[in-house]
Amino acid sequence: MKSRLLLRVPAILPAALIAGAALAGEAPPDLPTSPLTIVPRTAEEVARIAAVVAPATDFTAPERFEALPGGAATSKALVNRDAYSHSSANMSFEKELDFKIGNGLFRKVWVSAPSSTQASDGLGPLYNSRSCQRCHLKDGRGHPPEGPEDSAESMLLRISIPGRPEDVIERIEGYIATIPDPMYGLQIQDRALPGYVPEAKMQIAYERIAVPLADAETANLRKPIYSLADLGYGPPHEGAMLSPRVAPPMIGLGLLEAVPAEDILALADPEDADGDGISGRPNITWSKDLDRPMLGRFGHKAGTPTIRQQSADAFAGDVGISNPVNPSGWGECSDLQDECRKAPDGAAEADQNLELDTEGLDLVTFYSRNLAVPMRRDIDDPQVLRGKRIFYETGCAACHQPKFVTHRLKNQPEQSFQLIWPYTDMLLHDMGEGLADNRPEARATGTEWRTAPLWGIGLTASVSGHSFFLHDGRARSLLEAVLWHGGEAEAAKTRVTEMPGPERDALIKFLESL
Ligand code: HEC
Ligand code: HEC
Asked: Is the pLDDT of residue 383 over 60?
């Protein structure tokens, strides 16, 4: 195979310049909602960082610090089912208590209001799950139901319809207007409290797709086809678009939030100016906290700017719990679902008339920011090193960007100034028709997805007991996940199908060491 390096090296440019170019006069897009207080980099640091994040060129030995993908926050605990549940290793003893309380809220099983356990009531009336942890199982990823009897709890269906010209957010260039389904809102809640009607059940049928591989047996992919059954409120709008999503793993999120926006934007190449077939576009989305556009980082289409907003939206949309960002007590009931809107809620005056107050939301956010990335295994194994070289040469690293250095942060020492190895550029890529959900989100089109971070992916089976990958869990192995890559990643995928079997095995072995 011809040796080629398809990596885009982040040109680290002054923040003002790039942020200005991307957002036409907006302030830098990663201004905090929560106390991310950024210390600007010195010119000397900028040069040092550029050298440190330069792509690997020597594959005979591991790189310095490669064993610690989350920098000093990396967990060095033993590999077992709890491998995703440890706190940042560099966290102070005093903060461990906040982490534990946050964990308690993440695991809390909410009940309906009114109830004697006032602090835990307010569930629903419509909901997907009674706790965060039931989707983010063991702080890891969810999975599609394995057969008609299995629960679809750790997965959900987003829904929306095309917007009208007046729904365009003009301050976001390239924003694709969509609006909630008038009846079902932005998400199908498949559960409801007694006395209320669940919205619908997700149904999945699978089609087989054979993919011939050089030097090996043909791979058989399963293509899911989604539909809604048991519609509780009549047919959705005729233009309704559905997007299936499994809960992603919760590790390393605070570090991803602390990657300087300018470093992410420097990797974008929307017009493919370098002609490598890979573009990469930032999602820009609306911050509910700051009431202005921000770089999108979280969710499978990077449709959410911060961990705090993602968590607040999960409380409201997935569990039906009101919070400072989403104060209505009925969660995601639309204004056509008036029975649901009239249900008693669990808000208490002592908690700012919310089911979850600011303190609670901030504790869950703190917890979500500090779930540590596990240490790598086998980094000096010759087959892993060979797989790493193939990963670079095949073009995987062009999107799965290996390294960043996080911002220096005033009051988040755990995330501050760490060399991290997330294997994502945090950008949107057109992944082709095969993976398309055909449902836009902010600037993301129906074929675009955010590059999934690959850190910790080798521990999926240990933590979650399954190996389902991609945004909807359709891939049943790491190899299947790669074989689904199309669009901008078509060339990389083809190289994988055509490479000799032992090279493919080494590539997978490298992924398993992450
Ligand atoms: C019904 C299942 C479900 C429940 C319950 C749930 N989540 Fe999630 N979570 C998801 C899905 C699906 C996504 C991806 C969303 C997207 O693509 O927009 C996600 C994404 C996230 C992310 C962003 C992760 C990333 O890599 O971008 C955070 C943070 C998060 N959830 C926190 C929470 C918190 C906190 C709770 C509890 C209030 C919670 N979630 C409850 C399914 C769930
Ligand atoms: C054009 C950008 C691009 C290239 C090139 C690319 N990927 Fe990806 N990768 C993505 C995106 C985007 C996703 C998420 C897709 C989804 O969830 O539907 C992804 C998902 C994955 C996943 C599943 C992650 C998860 O958490 O479920 C694996 C594994 C993976 N890629 C490995 C590779 C390997 C190995 C290569 C090289 C052969 C590669 N990728 C090349 C963009 C890319």
From this structure: yes
- The one-letter amino acid code at 186 reads L
Q: How many angstroms from the chain centroid is the CA of residue 399?
A: 15
**How far is ligand 2, taken at its centre, from the CA of residue 194, in Å?**
41
Q: How many CB atoms lie within 10 A of CB 148?
A: 7
Q: Are 199 and 229 in contact (CB under 8 A)?
A: no
How many whole angstroms separate alpha carbon 179 and alpha carbon 159? 9
Q: Please, are residues 94 and 366 in contact by the beta-carbon 8 Å criterion?
A: no
Please report where in the chains the tokens 């028709």 appear, as a residue.
433
Q: How crowded is residue 320: how many other Cβ atoms within 10 Å of its Cβ? A: 34
Taking the centre of ligand 2 as the mean of its atom positions, its distance from the CA of residue 490, in whole angstroms, is 11
Rounded to the nearest angstrom, the distance between the alpha carbon of 380 and the centre of ligand 1 is: 34
Measure CA of the first residue to CA of the last residue in the chain; give whole Å: 24
Question: pLDDT per residue over 467-503, tens digit each?
Answer: 999 999 999 999 999 999 999 999 999 999 999 999 9
Give the ligand 1 atom nearest the CA of 130.
5
What average pLDDT does this structure show over 325-344? 90
Q: What is the per-residue pLDDT across 97-155, written as a single tens digit (0 to 9) for each?
A: 999 999 999 999 999 988 887 888 889 899 999 999 999 999 999 999 987 778 888 99
pLDDT at 1 over 70: no
Q: Among positive and negative, which fits the CA dihedral 176, 182, 185, 189?
A: negative
CA of 467 to the centre of ligand 1 (A): 19
Residue 26 confidence class, pLDDT cut points 50, 70, 90:
very low
Spatial separation of the C-alpha atoms in residues 124 and 127, rounded to whole Å: 5
Q: Using an 8 Å Cβ cutoff, are 389 and 402 in contact?
A: no
Whole-number Å distance, alpha carbon 332 to ligand 2 midpoint, is 32
Task: Return the ligand number nearest the Cα of 453.
Answer: 2
Ligand 1 pocket mutation, candidates 103, 107, 134, 136, criterion most atoms within 8 A of CB: 136
Ligand nearest to the CA of 152: 1
Structure tokens at 83: 């491998």
Q: Is 7 in the pocket of ligand 2 (CB under 6 A)?
A: no
**pLDDT > 70: what percent of the chain?**
93
- CA distance readout (Å), 286 to 23, 297, 332: 12, 12, 18
396 CB near ligand 2 (under 6 Å): yes
Atom 20 (ligand 2): residue with closest C-alpha?
Answer: 452
Q: Is 278 in the pocket of ligand 2 (CB under 6 A)?
A: yes
- Answer whether 152 contacts ligand 1 (Cβ < 6 A): no
Which residue's alpha carbon is at the smallest distance from atom 11 of ligand 2? 451
Report the mean per-residue pLDDT for the chain. 91
Type of residue at 188: I
Neighbours of 2 (CB within 10 A): 5
For residue 252, which ligand has an atom nearest its CA?
A: 1
| Six-digit token string for 126 | 């419509």
> In the predicted model, is pLDDT for residue 7 greater than 70?
no
Lowest mean pLDDT among 71-85, 248-262, 340-354, 398-412: 340-354
